[in-house]
Automatic annotation (TrEMBL):
<protein>
    <recommendedName>
        <fullName>CinA C-terminal domain-containing protein</fullName>
    </recommendedName>
</protein>
<dbReference type="InterPro" id="IPR036653">
    <property type="entry name" value="CinA-like_C"/>
</dbReference>
<feature type="domain" description="CinA C-terminal">
    <location>
        <begin position="5"/>
        <end position="154"/>
    </location>
</feature>
<dbReference type="InterPro" id="IPR008136">
    <property type="entry name" value="CinA_C"/>
</dbReference>
<dbReference type="Pfam" id="PF02464">
    <property type="entry name" value="CinA"/>
</dbReference>
Amino acid sequence: MNNSDLANALLQACQRRGIMLATAESCTGGMIIAALTDIAGSSAMVDRGFITYSNEAKMEMLGVSAATLDAHGAVSRETVLEMAAGALVRSQAGLALAVTGIAGPGGGSAEKPVGLVWFGIAITGRPVVAERQLFADNGRDFIRRETVRHALELGLRALA
């Protein structure tokens, strides 16, 4: 499935469950919410998207703690868990998808290479979960598109 088909399937899954969806995006800069809102009628299932590119935005908009960012960095399991939880609490959504990663071309390190992305999934009444992916360093556009695809797939799996 392409990203448009995945987005449509995720919206249908939200509609079947009677829940809204929110996103908290860093490395994708709003591409996930854009994929969802490109679809006519998505306003019935999409509540909001938080684009939290800076650490300050993560703290102010999502409630990510400064201590978490200081200890683990923006691209970490701990941060994405707080991003997803914060998006759920600060919205009318029953499902929140969060992403934070290093899309490149710079910014990578041995511990956190270009292509590293953390995904967070928060669903009302369930523990927040995180998943790590390391995408091939095939350029910034590739990493961002693959991040969108994987986030949509994770949302679908979470609602299955």
